[in-house]
Amino acid sequence: MIFSLSDIRVVLFNCVLLLSVPHSGVASEISVDAWLLQTLVDENGVRDSDGSFSLTNPFSAQHNAAIGISTAHSIISASWNSSGFLQFLLDAQHAAAGSSNLFSRSTGTIYVTPQVDSFVSIALQYDYALGSGIREAIIQTAVSETNGDALLYHFDFANTLVDPSVGQLDFDSGGILLSAGVQYWLQYQVELHSFSGSPTSLSHGNGHVAINISPVPEPATLFLISAALPLLFRRRRR
Description:
The structure is a single chain. A hairpin with a 4-residue loop joins strand 8 and strand 9. The chain folds into 2 domains: 42 residues; 188 residues, no CATH class. By secondary structure, the protein is mainly beta. The strands form 2 sheets. Strands 3, 4, 5, 7, 10, 11 and 13 form a 7-stranded antiparallel beta sheet that branches. Strands 2-1-6-12-8-9 form a 6-stranded antiparallel beta sheet, with no helix packed on it. The relative contact order is 0.23.
């Protein structure tokens, strides 16, 4: 199917218009109430860690931790606005030597209260290359009401006992509905873990986490979407 330039312009105009529709005069901020963002390396209870506890908007930070040749590095950026949108991004690099119990981890818990019904989505991707011995790579995420029900829990791992030593773990939650005025906590974790192996042999992991919150579209916005859809099926006149 071929679209004319005028078709594309009209669709783009409608998309811009959708983003500008107000939410019936209701304040649509999202409140970020607290967070605990940590990057750490722990070997048999000996720990080096770095993290952020204070809220700033926008937020940007780098966290680093190391024990010997085992390291953890996180780059984090976050922002939210008075229209109820939040974006949180994490890039992490981990290296974990062989040990009887060693992990290199990036983890976080974020408490939020949307002021209008909203959708949250969480996506994780973790590329790993595990060293010899018993090693594993882990991803984990959760969404829950602070004083109520869990809406999401996902845990996945790969280990050298049954899985290829090189691979990828990934997960995308899709949209999860958050109710207005209810506090939720959002959690993520990407990690390398060693249970044995040479102390000079490293596992490596590269992780990405994206958390996005946006208000549920109002009926007027949905109407504009339905009105714009037929334009996608117009054929170019010859």
